[in-house]
Design a protein that fits this description.
The chain is mainly α and 161 residues long. Helix content is 69%, strand content 2%.
Length: 161
């Protein structure tokens, strides 16, 4: 699908360049000698650009849906690093390991999931069965708390594996 998208993007660039050419050479559209060919070429480029643009939108949507499905089913370590980014990946992995040993089904009383969020935090920030959903909720909480891990009893600098 990526290759097909690349071909469609290249085609769109080509059609845009044809349209720009005629915008910069308006005299061809008014010329008695070249008018018929110029109008035909411009009209064809505009129609094809419209059609290829619709295809590009559809292909991008399909790729985004595929990526969303892949992310939704990602293992905990991958999901955590994707959500927290490279800057906080290691820290988030350490906190999640301490809290749940990277288990999405971990439970300790009211505390659930990878980051052992309580019921009020889950209500505010969300929760889900998948690692990606739990990582998103924990990241929201992390950002709102000032990116300092203060809401968690486990801290990344405590040296967990």
């Amino acid at each position: 699908m990526n290759t097909r998208l690349e071909h469609k993007l290249a085609a769109a660039r080509k059609y845009r360049s044809v349209i720009r050419f005629f915008e910069n050479h308006r005299s061809l559209l008014g010329s008695t000698e070249h008018r018929a060919l110029a109008i035909t070429a411009l009209t064809r480029a505009e129609r094809r650009l419209t059609r290829v643009t619709k295809t590009i939108v559809a292909l991008r949507g399909a790729l985004q849906r595929r990526e969303a499905r892949r992310l939704a089913n990602a293992p905990p370590k991958v999901a955590i690093c994707r959500v927290f980014g490279s800057r906080y990946c290691d820290q988030a992995l350490k906190v999640a390991w301490c809290e749940s040993h990277h288990s999405t089904t971990a439970r300790n009383g009211q505390y659930l999931g990878l980051f052992q969020m309580g019921w009020s935090e889950r209500r505010l920030f969300g929760h889900g069965q998948k690692a990606h959903q739990q990582a998103i909720a924990a990241h929201k909480y992390f950002v709102l708390s000032g990116r300092d891990w203060s809401p968690w009893s486990c801290k990344p600098w405590y040296g967990y594996s």
